[in-house]
Amino acid sequence: WTIQTMLPLHLCSVFVWLSAVMLLTNSYRIYEFAYLLGIAGALQAILTPDAGQYGFPHFRFFQVFVSHGSIIIAAVYMTVVAGFRPVPKSFLRIAVIANIYMLIVGGINALIGSNYLFIARKPDTASLLDALPEWPWYILHMEAIGLLSISILYLPFAIKDLWKWWTKRATGAQAE
Asked: What is the pLDDT of residue 52?
């Protein structure tokens, strides 16, 4: 255990805990982040898992998939069962708070020599970040990928809203 690698400062570490709080409290504010940012990050972690030196059947192997899968399941549960959904203003809230969080974690990284959020350097294991330019430029690319990811996750709701608006408009035009 080292302070440089084991603090729960990576987004998915934060979302494991926040997802539990969200489920217990029905918190919409947490839901916005868990759905848009949590699912996007957890999917990346599942697609390119970092189980360290441990492979199947070690506990760490299972922990990676169970913890990240739980983030996705919790957010989908709140969408399907509780009826929560992100709204356009969710984008601004997520962008502002996520970037403030990144600045805070960047300061912690500088103080203790860590690499939380992978903003000090690329991770040691293979990931999608390997396809991006070197530090610090890949951070801007991560931001763009994050925006694209949350846009894709919001897309079903945008399509539903657009369809609802269009059918309401069409039925209103027929009534005239």
From this structure: 60
